[in-house]
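Notebook p. 47: complex prediction with cobalt (II) ion.
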Amino acid sequence: MTDFYKGLSPVKFEGEQSTNALAYRHYNKDEIVAGKRMEDHIRPAVAYWHSFAAEGGDPFGGRTFDRPWYDKGMDGARMKADVAFETFDMLDVPFFCFHDVDIAPEGDSLAESNKNVREIGEIFAKKMETSRTRLLWGTANLFSNRRYMGGAATNPDPDVFTYAAAQVKNVLELTHELGGENYVLWGGREGYETLLNTKIGQESDQMARFLTLVIEHADKIGFKGQILIEPKPQEPTKHQYDYDVATVYGFLQRYGLEKRVKCNIEVGHAFLAGHSFEHELAVASSLGMLGSVDANRNDLQSGWDTDHFPNNPGEMALAFYYILKQGGLGKGGFNFDAKLRRQSLDPADLLYGHVGGLDVLARGLKAAAAMIEDGEFDRLLDERYAGWQSGEGKAILNGERSLENLAERVERENLQPQPRSGRQEYLENLVNRFV
Ligand code: XUL
Ligand code: CO
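Predicted complex, structure tokens below:
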């Protein structure tokens, strides 16, 4: 045990009446909601990068946090791993996620970097023998090092592509060995700053080739987890190729990869793309692409990906509505891709962020389950589209009517469609009844 959380006790569920800021008020992992344990619905994960590697920097100033593992090389990485697993225990969460560079320092060569990553991977494996926390997903950081400034898979230099591929091979294999349930590819710098130096078609082919190599290797090593792309429209590059779910789907379909790859959808990224979180989830679900979620929120005034912890139960209610409707996230989960504000210096702050976030998810889940149980949304939706279930509507969809047929019918029956209320206010009020 380190003394990082000295004086603090593990977070437990105490119920809605509790005033203990380090207790769950809604997240009761064993409570059955819609036929399943709450934890099995949410599958929450702590993100290694924000919780243990981030330093509280912003564009105007560097590190504000003061963690005992900073600047200590591999010794620091080992201490960081200790505190990470103590955090998982304190929060009683079933999952975590990491990038290679979060867990171990980069060396002078890829071989040395990979060796460092592997060494910490072995420590994880050892800790997982006694901890209940599992790996939700692993990923490779292909965006921080200056070699990736012009992209990884989409770099104009094939040697950078090659280096990135070797890095992914290492993390994919480690993810597999640690029993990770998913592997994520966020296209950190897969995009462009200016079209003046960019061949879009060429870069698209490169990206597809890279993804194909990842899939082939996953199959070769017997990795049965989901392979996930995480859409984001901008930042760090001006235009990221994986703009949103629909764009990613188009890309995958173009290269015949849509059956093997799903999406990891992040709240803040949806917002940057001009969508709501539930829009991205609903689109992904309708395409069979909803794999996992990065839970956070953006500051609505800043226009940046600020990665705050979630705090809007209404938004999460709608999110869970679509997740429950598709029968859950399967191997996916809710990774807290959320970081502390730079003045939140204390170890307790790390717990407050996750406690609040998990309680918001739990409230959203319970509200969505109640909405579905109530049945009014389904009933109204079915009623609104009832015309397509039989008669002329069905015949049109089945391809049994031509444009001429339709025109004839309008004349023959003197068709005068009568508009009907969409009842938006009624429906919004109905959501709030459950939140
Ligand atoms: C960046 C982001 C990443 C990915 C993993 O906006 O969301 O942290 O989740 O690379
Ligand atoms: Co993310």
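Notes: Residues 34 and 373 are 8 Å apart (CA to CA). The two ends are 40 Å apart (CA to CA).
Next step: compare against the earlier run before touching the bench.
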